[in-house]
Each structure stands twice: as C-alpha cells, then as structure tokens.
C-alpha cells in the first residue's frame, strides 16, 4: 500500500525517549512535515510487533537502542491536499527506558538530524510537529501513564 494517498490509515509507532528533562527528537527529511522536529518513528511493517517496530525506528533514526516500557499515547495525523487525504497515520507512542540506552547518537533513515531538546522548549518552537507538541504538552501537564500491550 502506498503511504501517499492511502486507501486506509497506516499503523505507525513513535519512539519516545526522555532523559534529564529532555526528549529525543529527529528532524524529518521527508514528507509529511519535512524539515520539522518530531518523535522518531514510522510505519509498522507486516508481522512486526508494536514494540519491535518502535525499537527498530529508534535505532534507524537515532542510532540508539533502548528497551520499551509501554504505550503512553495514541494519536492520528491526517494531511489533506486538494480535498484528498495525502497521508493518514494512526500513531502508537511507546516510551523507552532511559536507563537502558546504548549506542551513539546519529541521524539515519528518514532523519536528517537528531537532538535532545528540553521538554519546555519543544512547546515554544515553531519547527516542531503538532502531534509532537500535543504529546509533550500532555507529558508536561499530566505526567506519563504507561499502558502495557496484551
């Protein structure tokens, strides 16, 4: 199935890693939201579990490995173009354990840059995706509640 102008929504994951009041973000190299900072992530491949997809995306886009703790949010991203749906993702955000981080920070895959950005700074920047800002706002205002996958 094509990601652009899909017939159905595409299941995707976000890899959320928070350490010392900062969140790990990537700068997107491709549409949608090319050039914007966002949570590392991408589509779930057929046969892949949610946690395995999140671990793969974290490593591909940031060079880091870590162990997932559980799901913290589910969101959607819908992009319209001329009355058609250009992109439609259902995003399952997975929180990772900061104490299990391994690897060297470097952009890869769809990411053209990667950085630790203070949570409060994310909310005031114009170059952060709306879905990332919503997630960070919820984390700052409500804290993190982990939901395990059964």
UniProtKB/TrEMBL annotation:
Statement: the UniProt record of this protein carries the keyword Plastid: no
Keyword annotations: Hydrolase
A molecular function GO annotation: hydrolase activity
Matching Gene3D superfamilies: Nucleoside Triphosphate Pyrophosphohydrolase
Residue ranges of domain Nudix hydrolase in the record: 8-140
PANTHER family recorded: ADP-RIBOSE PYROPHOSPHATASE, DIHYDRONEOPTERIN TRIPHOSPHATE DIPHOSPHATASE
Protein's name in the database: NUDIX hydrolase
Lineage of the species this protein comes from: Archaea, Thermoproteota, Thermoprotei, Desulfurococcales, Desulfurococcaceae
